[in-house]
UniProtKB/TrEMBL annotation:
Keyword Nucleotide-binding: yes
SUPFAM superfamilies named in the record: P-loop containing nucleoside triphosphate hydrolases
Classification via SMART domains: AAA (SM00382)
Keywords: ATP-binding, Nucleotide-binding
Species assigned in the record: Thiorhodococcus drewsii AZ1
Protein name, UniProt field: ABC transporter related protein
Pfam families: ABC_tran
Residues of the ABC transporter domain: 33-259
Amino acid sequence: MWDGYEAEWDYPFGAIRFAIAPYVDDRGKMSAIHVDRITHRYGQRTLYRDLSFRVPEGRVVALLGKNGVGKTTLIRLLMGFLRPSGGSCRVLGEDAHDLSPATRARIGLLLEGHLTYDFMSIEQIERFHRPFYPGWRRELYYDLVDRLGLPYSHKIGNMSCGQRSQVVLGLIFAQNPELMILDDYSMGLDAGYRRLFLDYLQDYLNQGGKTVFVTSHVVQDMESLVDEVIFLQRGGELLQMDLADFRRDYRCYAFEREGTEPPRPDALIRSVDTHGGQPRLYAFAERDGVEKHLAEHWPGVRLGEELAMTLEDAFIGLTGKY
Ligand SMILES: Nc1ncnc2c1ncn2[C@@H]1O[C@H](COP(=O)(O)OP(=O)(O)OP(=O)(O)O)[C@@H](O)[C@H]1O
């Protein structure tokens, strides 16, 4: 729903009334990102059709999906680098394809970890970025890059992949944006730095009112960080849930079968796999419901114990191993 307010501006030729309409969701929260029925094609290939979701302001939302489902493409669409074949995206209230410089300055973007100004040094790149952002926090940048143990004259082009990622993340934290869009922030970072990054991100969030939209292949890192998850499947199927609800409702059960076929995914069984020789099935259902369903549709299949899952287990149980 659009829930804006009206304003009136006086012009020499008379007053004009108009509605200013920020997008809010059903819970009355403003959407920092609103993707509305987008379709995207590369040539003849349709990546997604009528994809819709929202990232409410003040939330941390992870976009998770297997290689090649279109996460980076989605971020390119959000930043207006690509135009969707259909539908629209709005970011901080503006059309993604027509973002003003002022709005871009409110967005901290990490796109596949790459720095374009390789010829600059650690010091030069900070000086270059600083004037674009009114709330620049220089100390945060140097706090992070000091940990590299490199002289400030060291060129970006002569850094390792992980070191470059550290510089880019330092620049984004210094920018102190309202909205962070982080595409695979973990690229090349070692475990210690990833932990450090998460600490910085927590400090950033503690300021309040910040929104983060993040993709990552290190699903486990998301557990302590995010409020909501969006699972994007091949073919564009999308599932968005509060992380707490997903962790509570998505279950994994061992099973055994007596000479019958193994169960296949259906209206209740989300997926079936084998891990360490143990067949397992996954469902958004409690034990009673699954047992009843098996008795009705898959006789001969006997439900075993419910298995504990990490977020990564649950992710694989939802999207499949390959
Ligand atoms: N410019 C392009 N032209 C044609 N196809 C493209 C183009 N860019 C990406 N693709 C294809 O679109 C699909 C989605 O790519 P994208 O990079 O968005 O995936 P991803 O989910 O970010 O993957 P990963 O997790 O591996 O980074 C892939 O199959 C990719 O090969």
